[in-house]
Amino acid sequence: GELLYFLHADTFPPKGFDRQVIAKAQLGHAGCFRLKFDHPNHLLLMLAPLVTQIHSNWFRGGDQSLFIRKEQFEALHGFNEAYLVYEDVEFIERIYQQYDFEIINDYVTTSARKFEQIGTLRLYFYFLIIHIKYRQGVGPVALWEYYKWKIAQTKPEKQFHLSN
Prior knowledge:
The protein contains seven helices and five strands. It has a three-stranded mixed β-sheet with strand order 2-5-3. The radius of gyration is 16 Å and the shape is globular. Helix 6 packs antiparallel against helix 7. It starts with a strand and ends in a 14-residue tail after the last helix. With 164 residues, the protein is of the alpha+beta class.
């Protein structure tokens, strides 16, 4: 099709999302929805709907879903497949540089499961570290290793180095 919509498997779009996405895409926008959690059992999870309305790529991620016109996706050469994690944020950053990015004032609902498993503060901290590492130029291999070590909670296959 002419319009692409990316949605995590544990995220549910709002009723009528297709009409909202089509309307924004017809204006040439790429974008996402705001975010809320299915079990907001922590203050930080309760704040997600407020934070995700802020128009900054610091507050974007795949859990908010993503829509983009196919021609825009192709002009940006799609997702960088070197990233096994954080590919959505890296791609959204490129969208922000080239196109109007629209945050639709409606909510996708995503699972709080991983926050419940790991702990909300701990998981937000790990995601913050990944974000900072990315901003410092740490490459996709090192981000993946850190994610596996801290979030997927599997032992890294090799020594973790910031230079990867």
